[in-house]
Amino acid sequence: MSRVVIKSPAEVAKAREAGKLVAELLAMIGEHVKPGVSTEELDARCHEHIVKVQKAKPANVGYYGYPKTICASVNQVVCHGIPSPNHILNEGDIINIDVAVIKNGWHGDSSRMFFVGEPSPEARRLVETCYDATVAGIRAVRPGASLGDVGHAIQTITEGAGFSVVREYCGHGIGRVYHEEPEVLHYGRPGIGLKLKPGMVFTIEPMINAGKAATRQLGDGWTVVTQDGSWSAQWEHMVTVTENGYEVLTPWPDGLHGYPAIG
C-alpha cells in the first residue's frame, strides 16, 4: 500500500473540479432516462456534453479498448454495460450510468442509479438500499479509520436488507491516474486494512445484487451480469480524507444525497 498517493490541497482542488463535472453530467442526463430511449442515445448526449460544454475529455473512451463514454448497466447488468442503439429502455427498468472525465489532467468518476418510469417495490428497495450502503461507507471515512471500516459499513447495510455485495469489483484511488491504489473493498472487518490519512482520494462504489453475489462476464469482454439473473444496483462517489473526516468530491447539484458533502 506504499503506492497510495497523498494529494496536496492544491491537487485535491483539481480532483474536486473534475469531480464536480461528472456530478453535473449525471444530473443533466437524468431527464433523458425514460422508456423508449436507447442507451446509445444517453451515451451520445453525455459525450457531447463533456466535449462541447465542459471542455473536458471522456476518460472511458479507449480505456483498455472500451468503446463508449458511459457504462450503461441495466437490470441484471452489474457493471460495464456497453451502450447500444439496440438496447431500448423499458418501463420499470433500473439503470446505472457510470462516467468519468479528464479535466486539466485530473480524473473525475461517479455513477448514479435511475428509475425508468415507475419501478417495482423490490427494485426500489434494492436501489435505495445500495444508496444507503454507499452513504454508510462514506460516513466511515476519517483519519485513522481503516478501509475495513468502510467495507464493513457497506456490507452491514447490504446484508441486513437481504442483499449481497459483489466481491470482484471495488473502489479505487483516483487522481492524475484513473485507477490507482488503494483498492476499496465493499465488504470487510472493522479495523482491518489500510489506515486512512488526509489527502487520500478514492471512490466508494458498491455493487449489490438482489440475489447471490456471483457474477459472470459476457462474450464482449466488458459486460458483467449476475449469474442468477437477479437485478443489481450501484452508486459511486469520489471522496477525499480531510483532517477531520471526509469531503465528497462529486456532490450532485440537484441535491440527491442523504449525506453532508463534508462530514
Structure commentary:
This protein is an alpha+beta fold and 263 residues long. The protein has one domain (9-248): Creatine Amidinohydrolase (Alpha-Beta Complex), CATH 3.90.230. 26% of the residues lie in helices and 24% in strands. It has four helices and 15 strands. It has helices at 9-29, 39-53, 121-139, 147-160; strands spanning 57-58, 70-74, 77-79, 94-103, 106-115, 164-165, 171-173, 180-184, 201-204, 207-209, 215-217, 224-226, 232-234, 237-241, 246-248. Strands 1, 2, 4 and 5 form a four-stranded antiparallel sheet that branches. A three-stranded antiparallel sheet has the order 3-12-11, with no helix packed on it. It has a three-stranded antiparallel sheet with strand order 6-10-13, with helices on one face. The chain is globular. The chain starts with 8 loop residues before the first helix and ends in a 15-residue tail after the last strand. Its cofactor is Co(2+); Zn(2+); Mn(2+); Fe(2+). One of its GO terms (molecular function) is metal ion binding. Monomer. One of its GO terms (cellular component) is cytosol. Substrate binds at residues 80, 179.
